[in-house]
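Case study B.
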Amino acid sequence: MNRSSLFVLIKKELTRLFGDRRLVFSGILLQGLLLYVMYSVMGNFMGDMISVDEDYTYKVYAVNAPQSFSMLISESGMPIELTESDAATARQNVADNKADLFIMFSSDFDSQVAGYDIASGSQAPQIQIWHNASRIESLEADSMVKNLFREFERSMVKKFDINADLDPQEYDLNTGMDFASSFTMSLIPMLIIMVMYQGCMAIAPESIAGEKERGTLGTILVTPAKRSNIALAKILSISVFGILGAVVTFGSMMLSLPKMFVSEADGFTFDYSVSEYLCILLLTISTVLVFVALLSVLSAYAKSTKEATTHASPLIIVGMVCGMSSMITGGAVSEFYYYFIPIFNSAHSLTGIFTGDASTLNIAITALTNTAVALIFTAVLTKMFSSERIVFDK
Amino acid sequence: MQEILSVSNLTKTFKVSKKQQKLRNLNKSVITAANDVSFTSYKGEVFGLLGPNGAGKTTVMRMLATLINPDSGDAMVGGKSIVQNSREVRSSIGFLTNELKLDDFFTPNYTFDFFAEMHRIPKQTAKQRKQELFGKFGIDKFAEVKISNLSQGMRQKFSLVTSIVHNPDMIIFDEPTNGLDVITAKVVTDFLIELKKEGKSIILSTHIFELVEKLCDRIGIIIDGRMVACGTVDEVSGGRPFEEAFFDIYSKTTGEVV
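Model:
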């Protein structure tokens, strides 16, 4: 049975792409490898950033610190330098990174605790603790002191509460994003987008502009195949190659993202659900399709591989700006209409997933918009292949 | 005689960029590569297209191969219009030109099978044809060698083979012996004679007068996009040596003394 020319062309394109070991390495394996290495290096870097020197002494400011607290600290053997202060100074010092922690006790805390009757239903004696999440020392001190108090409270049969009256975030005096979020938002989506772009860039110009340049495209044009089929075969096979690269990228993300978040400290945990991973995969594939379609059109317009690379260079800047935009907007934008902007939507959807702010609607809009854009550019490419100027312009 | 190709008033213009205008010292933004070209070719004959470089021969051949569309005019190949039935025309013709290259990455074996599938040739027929053509041109020994590793002569022979994978009735050859060593050139020339004997129709563009006199039944001379002479070699040369007649026609048409 004779096969359709589209099938024959796709088979030939795939044989060409997958038969070239260098292309398979640079277009598929390299991006996964790069991502794994980058995330691992960044994980180590972050590990260094989020670990506190062994001989570090935590500066803790306290207001109304009772005798029992000073004893508790000295008995615990923790490297804490306790300074009695007024509330305003203590608060300012923590905000200005001059101190690690600010603890405010109810006045006459020890006697209040001693006289407190749980059965009375009245408010328990209060301890309020403020930290600054932009510094690991502050986070570590917060965690350490809270654990100390919990142990102390347990020993006293729960006679006081810690930060009970407010949302825990209210006690974070850092005015910007928290450490992990800002890092994730600024770097990871951009890295993913750049790696995907790089993978598509390794094949699209070579497959289309390269064939024009070498004169091998004309040889196929002399066969009875429809020109639209030739264009479709190109874009479909590049997409298969690109998607495979995206799957490798995704696999590498699954393996390497946990390396990014090496601490158990607050804000540094890495725990995503299966559905979130599937969303990352969906976003990765749809973004790759946009890049494949865009780069294919640019490559068809170019006279040579070199020219195609030049035409594509503004696209990498767009990718970088979109990738970093979540840092400027302070996280994933929430308005749905922004998710109709290709690439930008991918960056923000990914940021949303990483920071736990993802919306199913926005992810769906992103995937559908990207697929629609890819289809539109595929139609443009098939039209371009019917143009003499495009296919014979050398 | 059975008419296999009928070319009627083919015209093709190209826009010239300002850069090209400067380079080629042109004072117009549009050039007419083929201007109202008409001729007829019959089954089993070799029709030679002659003319200086840039005269428009390749443009006419590209239009006949349906790679580019004419601005006006048409040509019927085996009764099919190159404008209306371009895919059918491509199924019934072979086209060999130096401009079109084979992908260096593949082997002759793979490439032959690919083109056979593109022309929807049954596998068994394709296998027999491959054996026959590979054997004739000595390609069988290099069937699994990448095209990038073949010699220039072997590549040209294989290009010739790929242009006739589907056993077309009409074959268009644009300077098929250009750049070949004498031995490979002879192999190609002998094959053209063999194709003629098989009753194939050949449109041949060449600068080699000896080849014209040896192979062509009829010729057409194109100068500045126009068909300025058309007929048998004897009719066009008027009994003089063909080379002398060609230069005379060229001088009369362009006003340039050669």
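The mean pLDDT of chain A is 83. The remaining cases will be described in the next quarterly update.
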